[in-house]
Design a protein that fits this description.
Elements lengths: L1 H23 L4 H14 L9 H20 L20 E6 L23 E6 L1 E4 L3 E4 H6 L4 H25 L10 E3 L15 H13 L7 E5 L1 H10 L1 H7 L9 E3 L2 E5 L5 E2 L17 E8 L3 E13 L9 E14 L5 E5 L10 E2 L3 E3 L5 E6 L1 E2 L5 E5 L4 E6 L2 E6 L11 E10 L5 E9 L4
Parallel strand pairs: 5-13, 6-8, 15-22
Antiparallel strand pairs: 1-2, 3-12, 4-12, 6-10, 7-8, 9-10, 10-13, 11-12, 14-17, 16-20, 18-21, 19-20, 21-22
Helix pairs in contact: 1-2, 1-3, 2-3, 3-5, 7-8
């Protein structure tokens, strides 16, 4: 309202001044009023610095930035989230924390029915403040270039604010760490050999669904925001998801699976290898990757506060003869209560699956007897061994395997050699190595 009154006042004063000057010069007062307002809006520096004409210029540019910020919300995972901007006062929003739900009596026969108070509490939340750094624009630039530099600067500031507030919103939607009401899961797919990252698989989405079910989240309104890594993981293994991803996404989603409306976002928060959320804007260390997160739409909110342009004209900076411009914008998006969301981050395996090294082919004597072999494991664990043949038994001590074979007497109708397969494994893992054991037939 203040801005509107300010703008109207500036326009009226411009009309009055323009009309008087036009009359004094022998022109129509109407043409003078219109002409001065046009000059004030387009040029922005016709009147002295600090005058109401400069205020009109600032109001126009601020309004254009607000339009740009609103356009940035279209077709993103923030679109459709309840908007409480109408109840923002002085860039603060007041939410009501609802008390516990009342108990329900079934087939009650006792009266009077007991009283149960439902105490609510007011929560005042300060909107996040986003400020761009000051951009200098010299008069020389404005005189020499062939494009609208001020428009490009305004759009750049708008893009920067949108990027920052979307990243802050995603960060606020994710739990700090795993908890009973804030599940933080790890991926369980195969290992990326280049990064050691454990990939996301469709079963991980089912685990997220189960976690949401356990929290009592309604089935309608579940939204899943996948990071780029997890999107690519699903494209590799899930044909149904791949088909949906390639469809024109008019509603902003990239697919629907397991009850989730799935979106893609490039600036999801980072998690440590221990499953702890990193600070906003932090960089990834070895083994740290972006997460994906799911939430219930009606359990979160967003709100937009004021937007203001700060501008100084070149006339106020005679030393450098440059204009200066930046913006301040208030916005917030966060859960009303942290009890209806799930996070999943990429697990990390630095070494990959452990390996076994040692002989994979052994020949034993026809007369039988024992042969010893030692096998090394990359993780230092002991091994296991199982034979598939009755004529060959195996025994393990730590990492040493004793192969004991029976004598193989000559049989004119028999085979020249016989073969057994021994499976060597690493304890407490699914890693195995196949060893082939052969025994020649004893001659008559």
């Amino acid at each position: 309202m203040k801005r509107l009154l300010f703008l109207m006042s500036a326009v009226l004063i411009n009309c009055l001044c323009g009309g008087l000057m036009a009359s004094a010069a022998g022109f129509s007062p109407m043409s003078g009023a219109v002409g001065l307002n046009v000059l004030a809006a387009v040029v922005g520096n016709v009147a002295p610095a600090g005058s109401l004409c400069a205020g009109v210029y600032t109001e126009i540019w601020t309004g254009e930035l607000v339009k740009h910020l609103r356009r940035g919300l279209e077709a993103t995972w923030l679109d459709g989230i309840p908007d409480n901007s109408s109840i923002v006062e002085n860039d603060i929003i007041h939410l009501v924390e609802v008390g516990v739900d009342p108990d329900v009596l079934v087939n009650n026969t006792t009266y009077p029915i007991p009283l149960q108070a439902l105490d609510d509490a007011d929560i005042a939340i300060q909107l996040d403040k986003f400020q761009t750094k000051v951009t200098p624009i010299t008069d020389d630039e404005l005189h020499a270039i062939s494009y609208d530099k001020m428009t490009r600067v305004k759009e750049s500031h708008g893009n920067s604010i949108n990027d920052a507030k979307f990243a802050k919103a995603a960060h606020a939607m994710c739990a700090a760490s795993n908890g009973a009401k804030t599940p933080v899961l790890k991926t369980t797919g195969s290992r990326d050999p280049e990064t050691g990252r454990i990939k996301l698989v469709p079963n991980d989405l089912i685990r997220m669904k189960k976690a949401m079910d356990k929290l009592g989240v309604p089935a309608i309104g579940r939204r899943l925001v996948l990071c780029s890594d997890h999107i690519n993981d699903l494209l590799e293994v899930d044909q149904k998801f791949k088909e949906q991803y390639n469809i024109n996404r008019n509603d902003g989603t990239v697919g629907r699976l397991y009850g989730f409306d799935i979106y893609e976002f490039a600036n999801n928060p980072l998690y440590t290898t221990a499953g702890t959320k990193k600070a906003l804007g932090a960089t990834a260390s070895t083994g740290e990757f972006q997460c994906s997160f799911a939430f219930y739409v009606q359990r979160v909110f967003k709100a937009t506060g004021s937007t203001k342009m700060y501008y100084s004209e070149a006339g106020t900076d005679p030393e450098y003869q440059r204009n200066k411009i930046n913006f301040r914008h208030y916005f917030i998006c966060m859960p009303k209560k942290a009890d209806a969301g799930v996070v999943i981050y990429s697990d990390y395996d630095a070494q990959g699956a452990p390996t076994i090294t040692g002989d994979d082919a052994i020949s034993v004597k026809a007369s039988g007897g024992s042969n010893n072999r030692t096998y090394a494991t990359s993780n230092g664990a002991d091994i296991t061994a199982v034979s598939d043949s009755e004529w060959l038994t195996v025994a393990v001590t730590g990492k040493k395997v004793t192969f004991t074979s029976e004598a193989y007497a000559y049989d004119a109708e028999g085979e020249a050699t016989r073969t057994a397969t021994v499976t060597i494994g690493i304890k407490d893992t699914e890693v195995t190595k196949i060893v082939t054991v052969t025994q020649p037939m004893a001659e008559a």
